[in-house]
Write a structure and sequence with these properties.
Blueprint lengths: L8 E7 L6 H9 L7 E7 L5 H6 L5 E6 L4 H11 L4 E4 L10 H11 L5 E12 L4 E9 L7 E4 H7 L10 H11 L4 E12 L9 H21 L15
Parallel strand pairs: 1-2, 1-4, 2-3, 5-8
Antiparallel strand pairs: 4-7, 5-6, 5-7
Length: about 240
C-alpha cells in the first residue's frame, strides 16, 4: 500500500517593524525537518526593512504587505494567504527550536481526532555582558498559538482571530476552540523560544492583565448569553 501523505505545513509570520529579529525567525522556520511547505510573511505596514529582509530569504518566502492593521489582522491575512493542511504561527521576534515541527506533526499523526498539538515555551533574554541571547527559567505551557501546530479544519470550525481584540486574540481564539470542543494533544517538548525585549507587548504587566481579563470576560459572556462561540472571528476566507 502507498505511504500515507504527510500533511502540508504553512509557517505564518506576521511582522510589524521587526527587522531586528525577523531574519532569525525565518531561518528557524526554514531549518525545520521535515521542511515546511511554505513560509508566508505578512508585512503589517512596516516602516523599517522588514519586507526587504523577508524577500532576501529567496523564493521559499512569500511576503504579503498590507496596511498596518494589528496582529490579529496580520494572522488572519496569513491564514487566508496560506495553503497548508496545518498551520504554525511564529512571531517575528521569536524562534522555533530544532525538531519543533517534527514533534508536533507526530503528535497530530498519532492523534487524528485532535486538531491542535500544543507544546511549551521558554524565554530567552539578552545577557548584557556578552550581548548574547540566553535561555532562562523553566519552560511552561501558555495559551499561545505560537507553541502549537493547528489543523486548518480547526479554523473552519472556530473562525478567524477576532480583530477587535487588541492583544490576547490568540487566547480568545483558543478559548473559543475549547468551547466548541476542538480537541488538543499536549507535547512534552519546548516548541517556542520566546524573546523578551524592550518591544514586547507584555512588558506593561498591568495592561497585559487588563487584556486577559477582557478576553476572559468575553468568554463568560458568551456562555451566559449562549452565543455561538465561533462567530466572533469570522470564517476562513471572509474578512473580519
Amino acid at each position: 500500500m502507498p505511504a500515507e501523505r504527510r500533511a502540508t505545513v504553512s509557517a505564518l509570520i506576521p511582522v510589524w517593524n521587526g527587522a531586528a529579529f525577523l531574519s532569525e525567525a525565518i531561518a528557524s522556520a526554514l531549518a525545520q525537518e521535515p521542511a515546511v511547505d511554505e513560509v508566508v510573511v505578512i508585512d503589517d505596514g512596516s516602516t523599517d526593512e522588514s519586507g526587504a529582509i523577508a524577500r532576501s530569504h529567496g523564493p521559499r518566502i512569500r511576503c504579503v504587505r498590507q496596511e498596518h492593521s494589528g496582529l490579529a489582522a496580520a494572522r488572519n491575512a496569513a491564514l487566508r494567504s496560506s495553503r497548508g493542511d496545518v498551520v504554525a504561527f511564529l512571531d517575528a521576534d521569536d524562534v522555533w527550536p530544532p525538531e519543533r515541527l517534527s514533534r508536533l506533526l507526530r503528535a497530530l499523526e498519532r492523534n487524528p481526532d485532535c486538531e491542535i498539538a500544543q507544546g511549551r515555551l521558554q524565554r530567552m533574554v539578552r545577557d548584557e555582558r556578552t550581548m548574547r541571547w540566553e535561555l532562562v527559567d523553566e519552560s511552561w505551557r501558555a495559551p499561545n498559538v505560537a507553541t502549537a501546530l493547528i489543523r486548518r479544519s480547526a479554523f473552519e470550525k472556530v473562525g478567524l482571530f477576532d480583530e477587535s481584540v487588541a492583544g490576547g486574540d490568540d487566547v480568545d481564539w483558543l478559548l473559543r476552540a475549547r468551547e466548541l470542543g476542538v480537541r488538543e494533544t499536549v507535547v512534552d517538548a519546548i516548541t517556542l523560544l520566546y524573546r523578551r525585549h524592550d518591544g514586547n507587548m507584555t512588558n506593561d504587566v498591568a495592561a497585559d492583565q487588563r487584556r486577559l481579563l477582557r478576553v476572559l470576560g468575553r468568554a463568560v459572556a458568551r456562555r451566559r448569553a449562549a452565543v455561538a462561540p465561533g462567530s466572533a472571528g469570522g470564517k476562513l476566507g471572509e474578512r473580519s
